[in-house]
Amino acid sequence: MSTPRPAGRHPGWPTRLGPLAVPAGVVELRVPRLFDARAWSRVRLRDRAYLENWEPAAPGAWGERNSPSAWLGQWSTLRALARRGATLPFVITLDGRLVGQVTVGNVVRGSLCSAWVGYWVAADAAGGGVATAATALAVDHCFVDAGLHRVEATVRPENAASLAVLGKLGFRQEGLFRRYLDVAGGWRDHLCLALTTEDIPTGLVNRLVAGGKASLV
């Protein structure tokens, strides 16, 4: 007889994913920690010009909502949502250094078994396979240990880098959401892309490794 799962925890949480080696270095995903505040804020403040055009608008100035003290609110919210089974939040590390986040949100079970995935990566970690590896690790985890059937991502049509990441992983375009999110001072259209378990029976990480784009460590 199996041991009952703790109340408020959904399958596959908490956990650590990886390591996976890509051209930029070794990528891992882990649970956000309270003491990530300074490292998280340092990257976010430094890379404002790189990140702000792609992220949903939020109250307050960029400096305020990305300060070390702002991390406490984000961390506690993510932890509470994870404990309720509504999200799977991760920070991305590259050779042990925090360089971004991957969040699986709006986890719905029952007959849908679906969620969305979103990510950001530091400017100095872009282009070396980090976002691709991190997303692959997260989606594989969703389909295996977390027991989901479908994962979708929404991306502005102008965000060529993010579309390239999803394209490498085989996400298919399913439609266009008109004026979907308030981003960079206006309501922006977003493309909807998705994967289901049937699309990748052997997993995304295996696909990257077989294609020579990553290696297991």
Structure write-up:
By secondary structure, the protein is of the alpha+beta class. Helix content is about 30%, strand content about 30%. A hairpin with a 2-residue loop joins β3 and β4. α1 (about 35-45) packs across α4. The longest helix has 16 residues, at about 70-85. It is globular.
Main β-sheet description: 9 strands, mixed
| Order of strands in the sheet with most strands | 7-8-6-5-4-3-2-1-9
Shape: globular
Average pLDDT rating = 94
How many H/I helices? 7
Tell me what portion of residues adopts beta-strand conformation: 25-35%
Q: Which structural class best describes the helix and strand composition?
A: alpha+beta
Quick description:
This protein has 217 residues and is α+β, with helices and mostly antiparallel strands. The protein is built from 7 helices and 9 strands, in the order ββααααβββαβαββαβ. It has a 9-stranded mixed beta sheet with strand order 7-8-6-5-4-3-2-1-9, sandwiched between helices.
